[in-house]
Fold each of these.
Amino acid sequence: MRQVTKKSARSKGAGVGRGDAVYVGLDVHKRSIHAAVRVNGREVETGVLPARAGAVLAFLEPYRLGLKQVVYEAGPTGYGLVRRLRRAGVPADVVAPGKTPRTPGVSSKSDRLDCRALARFDEAGLLKRVAVPTVREEADRQVVRLRDQVMNKRRRVKQQIKSFLLQHGLREPRGLSDWTRASVAALERMKMAATLRFCLDILLRDLANLEAMLGEVNQAVRRLSRTRRHARRVDRLMKEPGVGPVTAMQFVTEIYQAQRFRNPCEVAAYVGLAPRVRQSGERRRDGPLLKAGRGRLRAMLVEASWVRVGRDPVAQATYRRLVRNTGCANKAIVGVARRLAIRLWRLLTCPQTDAPAA
């Protein structure tokens, strides 16, 4: 891996002052960071650095007086680098990969090209920043996301068990569609060849372990919801029909720093409940939902909306009106979920809001 030395960096950054405009794009990976520097609209340097904040700071040092912005795309490396750069006084941001412009007709792709493009787009003001959570906000969100991960693993094991029964011509016990205790007990007593019995027992043991793990995580989420930093907001959201403690915690931890959203449209787009609209002249076509945000949060908002429609007369009237207008129950419930997300956001940002509950 080629590294940029301090000597070569100083020679290229010599003469940069406060009147200059320096933009830096980084392409961050586990073991290396590709960097590109633009000064006053001209690319002056690219290099490959070790994946350490100290190496990035040393690379940036010759440009500090004119440094306007350092950016890199959100990814698996998290927010540790941007936090370290900010603590050192470097103006750094993380940008949304899905919002980065793509040059039409360009098929080549490399880390070096990516960092150069980020620096160029940032200089032109074309990049969309993402809110960087604090260490505590990210840790709290991870607890709730862990619950989603355990649930996904449990669902896969259940699918494996059903596929196992189908493959070997074994009849599903009564109640297995709901995974009742009696149906699981029937699986444990089911007669079959010894080798098949061994395989099924392993799957059932995996399922039991995941059930126990899910119980532990649920307790952790409940304890987190009663901490001083979350209890008041969670209680406020749970007053809404259909919103339980898990949904409330999911919303609070995913919609961190709720004040950063300027209007309800941004909230709907963030959680992935905004429709794709195509309009030209007199023609308007509403497409599918924009794929954005956390899928599990979107699903929980839809589930909460079904409960809400059954309990709240205003939400029920809204749902019926949307069914008449769209002719589709699924579209109507998504519309209710979008209104619910906006309502919860308003409760977070303006606790005394008297907005309609629909």
Note: Residues 4-10 have pLDDT under 50 and may be disordered.
Amino acid sequence: MAYRTSLDGQQRILDHLAESVFQLSDEEILDEVRESGVDPQEEADRTSVVLRQAVDTWESENERLSNLGHTINPNYWRSGQRSYHNNCLNCGASVSFSTTTQRMEGNALDGSCPDNGYTTKKREASR
């Protein structure tokens, strides 16, 4: 039987891996990348593209929420299982952002914020 880690266990492992990377100097990180046979500049460029795509998606989805009249406090994002969660400050509608799929979901995207008086329809907001 294969060993499986729960989602909480996976998150703890990822947190520990990230912490161990933060403790390394830049030179130590470059040495490890070189030892793996990967060109450090190519890996940096690839990582930059992936992060830029995530940021672009994040900004686009936040603009979509704003166009629907929802107000999301950027400091209130909470980490959950495989995604981050937040709520509209006006109506309480939920929204989540998955870093894996780079998508936002939740009932805040179903339509206009009723507490803001916006009349935008879902179809119009998703363009």
Note: The radius of gyration is 19 Å.
Amino acid sequence: MERPDPGQVSFADSTGNAHARRWTNRQSGASAVRPATTTVLIVVEAMHDSATSDVRELVAALGVALKATWSVTPVTAMLREQSPRFTFEPPAAEG
């Protein structure tokens, strides 16, 4: 099993599945979007000088596209050192 390097930022859910960069495709198909998918986590990262404004613009554009394509209301957050966690409640399973 692979482990992140000390200090490496990683995005994981409460079950231990990772959702960013090299970790998603090495663990399993858990991050694959399929016809039955009801919840998607899209991670956007940037370190360049205009990263904050560029990421905001990208998140806004993705939100518009997702809402238009699938009639959903995206939930977004900008993670920072002061607010490093994004928590959301997935939709209840139909049944």
Note: The chain has a mean pLDDT of 79.
